[in-house]
């Protein structure tokens, strides 16, 4: 795939493996394939042997009846099921091990939109249908959709996740091999579904830092979020230091928020998103409902993500213009254009 | 069809075909056999319409660029291929045709319990099909046969409501058939036809009927909600107005996964009949095959979430669905092993229906085992929504179901029409179907693991060679379907007389004349032996070293 034009005379049989999980999935796939070939071969062989050996020799022959065998029935129910349990167990292991990103994963944000992928980095770089990531570092992608369900699929990494409108999904990977790999939309999304494709470029560290410093003229995501915060008038109620009509947002992200119904909620991306789009869904203790208007329809998914990154940045440093968090493990002072 | 049957040579003995003549005698018939014939004609028309769309898809995919038609048209092709094939061919295929014809005969009844409801179900099917065809003629639908929201409910600009209403209406036809079968099997069995003596084809249709009655209302509600959402924006599925698009998938698959068992179970029933008849031997493990049909029907309702592992569903729900999917594979495996064991020390002949049964056993094994790849969480994440799923689904639905349908059609053709088809052509077409099928769909397992997503109008150039193989296979497959269509119609007029029991098969349907008289039997048969008692003279010896 990457490296050289495709040769039509060469039939590809196996995809490139370029992530840590890809190799694990491939081993399991080999195991499943081996069992499948063995079982199918066995059935074919037995049917073939019986068909030849017991072919009808004369038209009036009547073979003796055989009603069955409880021992055989038990054997061919239990043994296949045990083999299937090994599939289940191994598959669940991989699935669970890769369900949540490690804490040091770097953040990337992707918005699916008929029919393109819009990628943004906390440092401010934005690209369409291209994703640049460093080799060997875990990358967490927060997925949002502007319209219908899409699915973010990188075959060389053996991962895919649906991108569902109205909420955030996350996926993560660690790329292991520099190169250029397909990015596909895997959930049918309308006219140009098959055009909603792009490339993932895995760079080694130096190239990545180099690439990162080359873009993002509009400032970091947090800075852009702060701009939106002002434009939409959020800052008139959510004051920086003192109690206004709405809660102070400093230090909120990642904390547990006390609600007026006595419950608490973790202030994560989903909570912040809900509070912007449907402010009456959860009311912070000590505040009133119907004060804040909904911002549904007034802000794009990308803008919403910028706002969230901004609010996130308030939690960490208290400095509204600080670079976003979530880039732990990254060398300091790169790609931040203030 | 009726003109051929008016040929004086055919109409010697009174039978269901020559009892009455004229279109009214068909359109107002209450005879389950005539209704089965109406269904056969209808679903054959739908099958070839669906087949035309399949051919257009494969032609487009000869080249990586989208160059034959534009993207919108391509999207309509695969949608209409799916809608027509799934809802208007596969679901009614065996129950409404062979089931309708033979379930009453195999239990020694003179008709189904509710003949008028049976006719009504056909009319409902026709109205549903008319809606689907109207949607096609007016300009098509582009949502995929799965109608995923919010694309279907909010974004698509095509005739979604019309097509969804077609599926909605056809669902009632399916429910009525199921209801009729359940009552018939419970109440209309001939004296001596105990549950333990029921032919396995009847058991399979009975299990299918349970799913039809319990599952179909859910998909009807779901599609009605999609239509309401589109028309009135009520906010069930569209997140912009407070709905949940994933809710649709839960509701849709709650029916549509059991629906694949509606499609495959009757096919399995056919294979039990074919393997016994052409091995001239009783079935190995009767209670296990019968019970596995019920097991599939029940567990089949508990596995729908395996279609949704990458939707962000709870990990624990995913675990549960993965585990239960492994469990539902066991009854299918039991059937495969028992059919194989039935051939042991049999007297095996290679007539056309048996060739289809061999094909079924091989291809369904592959279809079933590749289903386990999709049930395995870690692997499913990679292969779901790729051509791997397309290949798996077609191995089960075409390699399994369509082969069983063709095998059953050839097996019972002499009984239904009184005529034999040309055996040489029959075998030739069966081999073509098998070869063409494998060439079409096997490469798709490879393109799937390589990562080619399904429903792609244009694809990455490195997948081309495998796609060209698929298209070549599809041409062979198409030929394999057209040849039987021709010789079966030909045989209606020119085929040699079949006689009452050309295969020397057991089963009550073979004890009456061919074609059967209107009420099936001269007098109600009395059953004194178990099903498939080919060796009834040494019934109790049970030799063979396996016991």
Question: What do you see in this structure?
Answer:
The complex is a heterodimer of chains A (338) and B (547). Chain A is α+β, with helices and mostly antiparallel strands. In chain A, 31% of the residues lie in helices and 19% in strands. Chain B has a single domain, classed as Cytochrome C Oxidase, Chain A (Up-down Bundle). In chain B, α4 packs across α9, α10 runs antiparallel to α11 and α11 packs antiparallel against α12. The radius of gyration of chain B is 23 Å and the shape is globular.
Features of the shown structure:
heterodimer; A: 338 residues; alpha+beta; five-stranded mixed sheet; 6 helices; elongated; disordered C terminus; B: 547 residues; mainly alpha; Cytochrome C Oxidase, Chain A; 66% helix; disordered N terminus
The CATH topology of chain B is given as Cytochrome C Oxidase, Chain A
Radius of gyration of chain B: 23 Å
Give the strand tally of chain B: 0
In percent, how much strand structure appears in the residues of chain B?
A: under 5%
Main-sheet strand order of chain A equals 3-2-1-5-8
Number of DSSP helices of chain A?
6
What is the CATH-assigned architecture of chain B?
Up-down Bundle
How many helical stretches of chain B? 16
Average pLDDT across residues of chain A? 88
Q: Give the helices and strands of chain B as they follow along the chain.
A: HHHHHHHHHHHHHHHH
- List the secondary-structure elements of chain A in sequence, H or E: HHEEEEEEEEEEHHEEHH
CATH superfamily of chain B: Cytochrome c oxidase-like, subunit I domain
How confident overall, as mean pLDDT of chain B? 93
Tally of separate domains of chain B: 1
> What is the helix content of chain A?
25-40%
Which CATH class of chain B? Mainly Alpha
- Shape descriptor of chain A reads elongated
């Amino acid at each position: 795939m990457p490296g050289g034009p495709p040769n039509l005379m060469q039939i590809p049989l196996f995809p490139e493996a370029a992530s840590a999980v890809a190799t694990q999935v491939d081993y399991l796939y080999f195991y499943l394939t081996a069992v499948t070939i063995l079982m199918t071969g066995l059935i074919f062989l037995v049917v073939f042997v019986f068909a030849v050996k017991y072919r009808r020799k004369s038209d009036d022959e009547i073979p003796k009846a055989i009603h069955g065998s409880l021992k055989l029935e038990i054997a061919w129910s239990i043994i296949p099921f045990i083999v299937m349990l090994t599939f289940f167990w191994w598959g669940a292991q991989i699935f669970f091990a890769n369900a949540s990103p490690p804490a040091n994963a770097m953040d990337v944000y992707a918005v699916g939109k008929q029919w393109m992928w819009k990628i943004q980095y906390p440092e401010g770089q934005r690209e369409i249908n291209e994703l640049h990531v460093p080799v060997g570092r875990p990358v967490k992608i927060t997925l949002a959709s502007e319209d219908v369900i899409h699915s973010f699929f990188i075959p060389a990494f053996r991962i895919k996740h649906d991108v569902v409108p109205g909420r955030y999904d996350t996926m993560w990977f660690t790329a292991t091999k520099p190169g250029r790999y397909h990015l596909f939309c895997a959930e049918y999304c309308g006219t140009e579904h098959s055009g909603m494709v792009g490339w993932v470029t895995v760079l080694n560290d130096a190239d990545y830092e180099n690439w990162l410093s080359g873009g993002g003229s509009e400032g970091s995501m947090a800075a852009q979020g702060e701009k939106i915060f002002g434009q939409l008038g959020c800052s008139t109620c959510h004051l920086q230091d003192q109690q206004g009509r709405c809660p102070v947002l400093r230090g909120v992200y990642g904390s547990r928020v006390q609600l007026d119904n006595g419950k608490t909620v973790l202030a994560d991306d989903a909570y912040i998103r809900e509070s912007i789009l449907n402010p009456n869904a959860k009311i912070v203790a000590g505040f009133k409902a119907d004060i804040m208007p909904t911002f549904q329809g007034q802000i794009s998914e990308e803008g919403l993500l910028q706002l969230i990154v901004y609010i996130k940045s308030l939690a960490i440093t208290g400095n509204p213009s600080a670079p976003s968090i979530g880039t732990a493990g990254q060398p300091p002072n790169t790609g931040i254009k203030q | 069809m009726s003109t051929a049957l008016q040929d004086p040579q055919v109409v010697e003995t009174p039978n269901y075909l020559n009892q009455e003549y004229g279109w009214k005698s068909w359109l107002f018939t209450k005879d389950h056999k005539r209704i089965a014939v109406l269904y056969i004609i209808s679903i054959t028309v739908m099958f070839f319409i669906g087949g035309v769309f399949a051919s257009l898809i494969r032609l487009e995919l000869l080249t990586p660029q989208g160059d034959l038609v534009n993207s919108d048209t391509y999207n309509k092709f695969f949608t209409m291929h799916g809608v027509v094939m799934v809802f208007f061919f596969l679901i009614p295929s065996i129950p409404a045709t062979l089931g309708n014809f033979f379930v009453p005969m195999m239990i020694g009844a003179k008709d189904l319990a509710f003949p008028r409801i049976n006719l009504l179900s056909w009319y409902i099917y026709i109205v549903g099909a008319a809606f689907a065809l109207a949607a096609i003629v007016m300009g098509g639908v582009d949502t995929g046969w799965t109608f995923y929201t919010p694309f279907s409910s909010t974004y698509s600009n095509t005739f979604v409501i019309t097509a969804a209403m077609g599926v909605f209406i056809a669902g009632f036809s399916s429910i009525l058939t199921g209801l009729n079968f359940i009552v018939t099997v419970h109440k209309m069995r001939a004296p001596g036809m105990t549950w333990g003596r029921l032919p396995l084809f009847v058991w399979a249709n009975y299990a299918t009927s349970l799913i039809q009655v319990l599952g179909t209302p859910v998909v009807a509600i779901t599609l009605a909600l999609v239509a309401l959402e589109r028309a009135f924006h009520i906010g069930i599925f569209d997140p912009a107005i407070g709905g949940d698009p994933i809710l649709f998938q839960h509701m849709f698959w709650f029916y549509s996964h059991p629906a694949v068992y509606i499609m495959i179970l009757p096919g399995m029933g056919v294979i039990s009949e074919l393997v016994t008849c052409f091995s001239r031997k009783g079935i190995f493990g009767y209670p296990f095959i019968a019970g596995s049909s019920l097991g599939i029907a029940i567990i089949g309702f508990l596995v729908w979430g395996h279609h949704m592992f990458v939707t962000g569903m709870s990990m624990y729900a995913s675990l549960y669905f993965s585990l239960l999917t492994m469990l539902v594979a066991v009854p299918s495996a039991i059937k495969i092993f028992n059919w194989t064991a039935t051939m042991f020390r049999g007297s095996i002949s290679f007539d056309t229906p048996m060739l289809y049964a061999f094909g079924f056993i091989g291809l369904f094994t592959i279809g079933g085992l590749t289903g386990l790849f999709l049930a395995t969480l870690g692997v499913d994440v990679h292969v779901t929504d790729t051509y791997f799923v397309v290949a798996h689904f077609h191995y089960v639905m075409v390699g399994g179901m369509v082969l069983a349908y063709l095998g059953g059609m050839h097996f019972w053709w002499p009984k239904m029409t009184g005529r034999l088809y040309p055996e040489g052509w029959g075998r030739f077409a069966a081999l073509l179907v098998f070869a063409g099928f494998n060439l079409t769909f096997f490469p798709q397992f490879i393109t799937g693991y390589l990562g080619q997503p399904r429903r792609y109008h244009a694809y990455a150039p490195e997948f081309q060679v495998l796609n060209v193989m698929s298209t070549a296979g599809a041409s062979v497959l198409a030929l394999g379907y057209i040849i039987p269509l021709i010789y079966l119609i030909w045989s209606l007029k020119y085929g040699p007389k079949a006689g009452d029991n050309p295969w020397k098969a057991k089963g009550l349907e073979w004890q009456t004349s061919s074609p059967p008289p209107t009420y099936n039997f001269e007098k109600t048969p009395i059953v004194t032996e178990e099903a498939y008692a080919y060796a009834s003279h040494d019934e109790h010896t049970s030799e063979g070293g396996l016991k």
